[in-house]
Amino acid sequence: MAQPVRSRKPNLRVERQLQRDGHRVLAGMDEVGRGALAGPVTVGVVLIDESCRSAPTGVKDSKLLTPAARVAMVPRIRRWALAHAVGHASPQEIDEIGIIAALRLAGCRALAAVDVVPDLVILDGNHDWLTAPDEVGLFAFTSGDAPVTPPVTTMIKADLKCSSVAAASVLAKVERDAMMVELAPQHPAYGWHENKGYAAPEHLAALEACGATDLHRRSWRLPGLTMDDESVRQGEQPEMSTR
Fold first, then answer.
1. Which residues contact 180 (CB under 8 A, 6 or more apart)?
2. Over 60: is that where the pLDDT of 61 sits?
3. Residue 122 in contact with residue 155, Cβ under 8 Å?
4. Which of 102, 164, 189, 243 has its CA 20 to 30 A from that of 157?
5. Taking residues 26-46, what's their average pLDDT?
6. Would you tell me the crossing angle of helices 67-80 and 163-183 to the nearest 10 degrees?
7. What are the backbone dihedrals phi and psi of residue 137, each rounded to the nearest 5 degrees, phi first?
8. Dist CA 61 CA 178 (whole Å)
């Protein structure tokens, strides 16, 4: 596991050390939407090499930026990065294979969308959800577009310390938020244009009153669905976050 670096804002110290260790092309990766009740889980990836200078001024974890600042940052990140992409896994895929395997599916789709194979992926957190598990049957899924997973190193709070990971979080957040805003008029009661599918009060109230849509993660115990509903299965419960 890569060692944390104390810093007030993301920088390339970790990335440069990893490059000196022989990992020339690095991929910063981060996810958004893991704790949402509706919509996809989304993974962003930003690739850099030695030619990529310091990240654009102001790049930081997406949670620390205003929506307008995130959107304005996207073209600057795209110009800076060696390559970049965003991958998604749908609510139906989350229900079918579980949230952890869906994260991997979204991450593999993001990696498949870039034309450069990284030497190492820097993954935010302390759990490597990107690498295929040893017990294939546990989180098995079918994905014809999934490449062989590169080596992974994890770091707690990498999105606060590594510019590449922070940039990936911005790309993922902006794209997923835009998707939820676009979907909101189809189901106006749930307030997705504001809450982006997370467990905000108006979203929970609409679930109680109207039940779940086909864009909800129906394998979770959602308000408005009972255990008698055949669509509800035992699954991982949502994290009450706004990420």
1. 38, 39, 192, 193, 196, 197
2. yes
3. yes
4. 102
5. 97
6. 130
7. -70, -20
8. 18
Residue 89 CB partners (closer than 8 Å, separation 6+): 40, 41, 102, 103, 105, 106, 109
For the stretch 62-120, pLDDT in tens is 777 889 999 999 999 999 999 999 999 999 999 999 999 999 999 999 999 998 999 99
Helix (H, G, I), strand (E, B) or coil at 206: helix
Paired tokens of 180: 């939820």
- How far apart CA 193 and CA 188 sit, in angstroms, is 8
* Confidence check: pLDDT of 241 > 50: no
Residues 35, 157, 139: CA angle, nearest 5 degrees: 45
72-82 burial, b for 16+ CB within 10 Å, e for fewer?
ebbebbeebbb
Q: Using alpha carbons only, what angle is made at residue 5 by residues 4 and 8, rounded to the nearest 5 degrees?
A: 125
Q: State how far the alpha carbon of 180 is from the alpha carbons of 74, 128, 212, in Å.
A: 18, 27, 15
